[in-house]
From TrEMBL:
<dbReference type="InterPro" id="IPR032311">
    <property type="entry name" value="DUF4982"/>
</dbReference>
<dbReference type="InterPro" id="IPR013783">
    <property type="entry name" value="Ig-like_fold"/>
</dbReference>
<dbReference type="InterPro" id="IPR006104">
    <property type="entry name" value="Glyco_hydro_2_N"/>
</dbReference>
<feature type="domain" description="Glycoside hydrolase family 2">
    <location>
        <begin position="797"/>
        <end position="899"/>
    </location>
</feature>
<dbReference type="InterPro" id="IPR006103">
    <property type="entry name" value="Glyco_hydro_2_cat"/>
</dbReference>
<dbReference type="InterPro" id="IPR006101">
    <property type="entry name" value="Glyco_hydro_2"/>
</dbReference>
<feature type="domain" description="Glycoside hydrolase family 2 immunoglobulin-like beta-sandwich">
    <location>
        <begin position="263"/>
        <end position="376"/>
    </location>
</feature>
<dbReference type="Pfam" id="PF18565">
    <property type="entry name" value="Glyco_hydro2_C5"/>
</dbReference>
<dbReference type="InterPro" id="IPR017853">
    <property type="entry name" value="GH"/>
</dbReference>
<dbReference type="InterPro" id="IPR048229">
    <property type="entry name" value="GalB-like"/>
</dbReference>
<feature type="transmembrane region" description="Helical">
    <location>
        <begin position="7"/>
        <end position="28"/>
    </location>
</feature>
<keyword id="KW-0326">Glycosidase</keyword>
<protein>
    <submittedName>
        <fullName>Glycoside hydrolase</fullName>
    </submittedName>
</protein>
<keyword id="KW-0812">Transmembrane</keyword>
<comment type="similarity">
    <text>Belongs to the glycosyl hydrolase 2 family.</text>
</comment>
<keyword id="KW-1133">Transmembrane helix</keyword>
<dbReference type="GO" id="GO:0005975">
    <property type="term" value="P:carbohydrate metabolic process"/>
</dbReference>
Length: 904
């Protein structure tokens, strides 16, 4: 145990506890993380977090005159040395044809650079912990002559970043192998150990491993130095910058289970039995052959406690002889009776198993490797849609970008879990990881919480969308990236399909584009023959070769039609009639869904008059938009030019019952891509805003996706001084089929939902202050009620915490919502008071937000204006400390408020 220990990992049993931190994470319950698992197995595999004590520096110009390769927009390109030849070999393990693998150059190119040198003084650099996003604290770029514009979130993602840290290596470690496992670094990572360039990985969203063993020496001062380089114009959204996911050192014996070295699949699955197949990759990095016993037991995995429960099966024990410097695969099959199947929430249960593999010789275990998995059957049917364990599951999905709002790209388990919790409340059961591999922990959450997942890898292939995007490296990296992606993720039961592309330019290039699709499809099948492939199509038509190459038909917007309703007729751009019927006729056997639907737009709590009488309209200044204040009306009838309202999408789905469902664009708002107002910072597409506050649209989807939930939601708010006597339409979202509206007790008429109608609307209501209320009915009986009152002047603050107890591990978070309220406790709907936050006790404020896409206050500011009456503060407990954290919120002339959060 010679490494400079991270705080959380100072002995072997503790390391196991640390590992099980993820495993013990429980969804839905508002309980703190509990590390309950005892270390029962001792083997020499160790996985240590390397998150603390990094020194960090970033430069907007190229500070070291090196780069991965020549590329457009590279700052000061003269004199720059390309180190690509040293990086390419890092992908070798994922290149199938040995002849196409790369060898490490032997020439004397300059690979030892200043910032990687021992003697370099980094004491003036910032000290940071990982995961780290160098851009998120801003400041935001405001005007248009700036390096990073609205598309990428107006934050300083660009430039070269260096991270340095010491590693120590003990005498015992010297007989072992030491791997550096980086879950994600944005981007063009290059890694030096003791001044020697080891390798790297360009694609910022993939996880990768480098073998540090040959470069380390015994002692405490091994220098690990990592260079990242994030080009401007490399993405269509906010990518973040830095080592934004976890980093690990994995120590193993020379004979060990390989990286992502197990693959568990099941066949003939029923409630009575399942056949489970197991493949394991054993690697021997020693020169001499060894005889190895391979034993794998299957246990129930209890996600709640994080423990491996009862043993339920074992794979036949095998003795294999593995030659010096050889890798081999061992296979086994076992039967499981009465398996507890994995299925999506809420109609099924996400049961999990864990396979514990032990490699041993002479009765001594020298490697223990754990694989979580689930047993389920999936049928992809052209008519019936998706069947999981023979039950139909309607896809009620959303697209999610990788950022975590005010925390940026820096991964945090609680932040990700919170996103999923709000989505589950919505009735969402499926997520498309648009458009890149997620962090590994997010997939553990989707497994445990029971979401179906589209795991997606590329936004571009050879044809670029921005000047410095992945197309620059597609030719050399698509194979290692694709195979690495699948090997990492293939055991997750939540993943139901591999998506190899999103709206790629190759849709337009006929057979040549389709042949790339075919190549990627075939690679996927070599890595995982059990799941289908897809790529999302916003242009390809049924008669083109592109859709033939892939299994599932994923349509972006084309299903419901693009610019095809009367309100869209004035627009230029491609007009596409609804294509569901055509695709289904051409490919009756292929499952068909909307991988992106709607692209509706709105700013939470903002209502703009007049309101369209139609069911869907594009945004402009006379149609739901305000280009001066950069807001879109929350009547939830307005969309991007290429999009449609939720109502129009629902209608298209219901007219075509063979459609398996939809993935709404998007679940949460995200940083960048602020269509239609690119001078803003974050998107308008979300059902939920960037801070996690629900927009009105939330209830429109909830009404459809949770038809048994008694709910009714009224919009707009009812505080409109100056609108007295003016037409102020009232809409109600409810799972009921009939509704009656009252204004100050006066009935406004009872409405019934007609066929293909998804909301109740009273479009001619004249505003008068007071109370509006709705009583809804389902099948003739009263179902749910709601009311909204005119608010008085702001008097005070009200605070709600998502959890009152958090873990004092320096990572867990409490999310506190502060509302501006009047004397009676009504939210003041347009309140924008500036709220000041402070904390006492063992905690700190990590970030604040309000969901306003035009708020350019830094996310780390402890003062923030409310937006539409609400503001969010995110609090973290100090690592290793317990006690009471008091969070105070105050605003000028308002009653302040305090809340106490317990840290354990
Ligand atoms: C790297 O460069 C420094 C300074 O030129 C030199 O002292 C050191 O020996 C070099 N390291 C290697 C591994 O070449
Ligand atoms: C499923 O089980 C049946 C009989 O139990 C067997 O004939 C068949 O080969 C099995 N199929 C697979 C894919 O294992
Ligand atoms: C391994 O352990 C078993 C049970 O303790 C014993 O019977 C066997 O002889 C041992 N084998 C070796 C090679 O030590
Ligand atoms: C704004 O959109 C509406 C449809 O919602 C359309 O009728 C009108 O022509 C558009 N105005 C402009 C200036 O494009």
């Amino acid at each position: 145990m010679g490494y400079t220990p991270p705080l959380s990992c100072i002995s072997l049993p503790l390391c196991y506890l640390f590992l099980f931190l993820f495993l013990s994470y429980v969804h839905i319950e508002a309980s703190p993380l509990k590390l309950t698992r005892e270390a029962t197995t001792v083997s020499s595999r160790q996985r240590l977090s390397v998150s603390n004590d990094w020194k960090f520096f970033r430069s907007e110009t190229n500070p070291d005159q090196i780069s991965y390769d020549k590329r457009p927009n590279l700052p000061s390109t003269s004199n720059t040395e390309s180190l690509k030849a040293w990086i390419l070999p890092s992908g070798n393990q994922f290149i199938k044809d040995p002849a196409k693998r790369y060898s490490r150059p032997t020439s004397s190119q300059r690979t030892n650079v200043t910032y990687a040198q021992n003697g370099f003084d980094d004491s003036k650099w910032e000290t940071v912990s990982l995961p780290h996003d160098w851009a998120i604290q801003g400041p935001f770029y405001r005007d248009d002559s700036v390096p990073v514009k609205g598309g990428m979130g107006r934050l300083p993602i660009h430039g070269v970043g260096w991270y340095r840290r010491k590693l120590s290596v003990s005498v015992e470690d010297k007989s072992k192998l030491m791997y550096l496992d980086i879950d994600g670094a944005m981007s063009y990572a290059m890694v030096w150990v003791n001044e020697i360039l080891v390798g790297g990985w360009p694609y910022g969203y993939n996880s990768f491993r480098l073998d540090l063993t040959p470069y380390l020496k015994e002692g405490h001062d091994n220098l690990l130095a990592i260079r990242l380089d994030n080009p401007t114009d490399s993405s269509r959204w906010y990518p973040g910058g830095g080592i934004y996911r976890n980093v690990w050192i994995t120590k193993v014996e020379k004979v060990h289970v390989g990286q992502w070295g197990t693959f568990i699949t099941s066949r003939n699955v029923s409630k009575k039995s399942a056949t489970i197949d197991f493949i394991i990759q054993v690697e021997n990095e020693d020169d001499i052959a060894q005889e190895v016993n391979v034993a794998t037991d299957v246990h129930v995995f209890d996600a709640k406690s994080g423990r491996a429960g009862e043993k339920v099966a074992e794979f036949p024990r095998a003795v294999v002889t593995i030659g010096g410097n050889q890798h081999l695969q061992a296979k086994g099959t076992t039967e499981l009776n009465n398996p507890k199947l994995w299925g999506p929430y809420s109609t099924q249960h996400p049961n999990l198993y864990i396979a514990i593999t032990r490699l041993s010789a002479n009765n001594e275990t020298f490697d223990t490797y754990e694989t979580q998995f689930g047993i389920r059957s999936i049928t992809y049917d052209g008519d019936k849609g998706l069947l999981v364990n023979d039950e139909h599951v309607e896809i009620q999905g959303v697209n999610q970008h990788h950022d975590l709002g005010a925390l940026g790209a820096a991964f945090n388990i609680r932040a990700a879990e919170r996103q999923l919790e709000v989505l589950q409340e919505l009735g969402c059961n499926a997520i498309r990881m648009s458009h890149n591999p997620p962090s590994p922990e997010l997939l553990e959450l989707t497994d445990r919480m029971g979401f179906l997942v589209v795991d997606e890898i590329f936004d571009v292939w050879e044809r670029s969308k921005t000047s410095a995007d992945f197309s620059l490296i597609f030719p050399e990296w698509h194979e290692p990236d694709l195979r690495a992606f699948i090997r990492r993720d293939r055991n997750h039961p939540s993943i139901i399909v591999w998506s190899v592309g999103n709206e790629v330019g190759e849709q337009y290039t006929d057979v040549s584009g389709a042949s790339i699709a075919q190549t990627l499809n075939d690679m996927v099948y070599e890595e995982d023959p059990t799941r289908p492939t897809t790529a999302s199509m916003n242009y390809a038509k049924p008669y083109m070769p592109f859709p033939r190459a892939l299994d599932i038909l994923s349509l972006n917007y084309q299903g419901e039609g693009i610019r095809d309703a009367p309100a869209y007729s004035h627009l230029s751009g491609i007009k596409t009639p609804p294509l569901y019927p055509d695709f289904h006729r051409t490919f009756p056997e292929k499952l068909l869904w909307a991988s992106e639907s709607a692209a509706s737009l709105s700013t939470r709590g903002t209502y703009i008059f007049p309101v369209t009488r139609g069911i869907s309209a594009p945004v402009n200044d006379t149609s739901g938009g305000n280009s001066k204040y950069l807001h879109v009306s929350s009547y939830e009838l307005y969309s991007a030019d290429f999009g449609a309202s939720p109502d129009k999408v629902f209608s298209a789905q219901d007219h075509n019952p063979f459609v398996a469902g939809e993935f709404v664009w998007s679940g949460w708002d995200y940083l960048g891509e602020p269509t239609p107002y690119y001078s803003a910072r974050s998107s308008y597409f979300g059902i939920i805003d960037l801070a996690g506050f629900k927009k009105d649209r939330f209830y429109l989807y909830q009404a459809r996706w949770r038809p048994d939930l008694r709910m009714a939601h009224i919009l707009p708010h009812w505080t409109w001084p100056g609108r007295e006597g003016k037409v102020t339409p009232v809409h109600v979202f409810s799972s009921a089929d009939e509704a009656e509206l009252f204004i100050n007790g006066k009935p406004q008429g009872k409405k019934k939902k007609g066929n293909y109608e998804y909301r109740f609307r009273w479009d001619d209501v004249l505003y008068e202050a007071g109370e509006i209320s709705v009583v809804t009915y389902k099948k003739g009986s009263e179902w749910a009620k709601a009311s909204v009152r005119t608010a008085g002047p702001a008097m005070g603050l009200r605070v709600n915490a998502d959890r009152m107890d958090i873990n004092g591990d320096g990572k867990d978070l409490a999310y506190l919502t502060v509302e501006i309220v009047d004397e009676e406790g009504n939210i003041v709907p347009e309140a924008d008071n500036e709220v000041m936050f402070s904390v006492s006790g063992p905690g700190e404020i990590v970030a604040t937000d309000n969901g306003n896409p035009t708020d350019f206050t830094s996310f780390i500011s402890q003062t923030r204006k409310a937006f539409s009456g609400k503001v969010l503060v995110i609090v973290r407990a100090s690592p290793g400390e317990a006690g009471e954290i008091t969070v105070m919120a105050s605003a000028v002339e308002l009653k302040s408020v305090k809340v106490k959060i317990a840290a354990h």
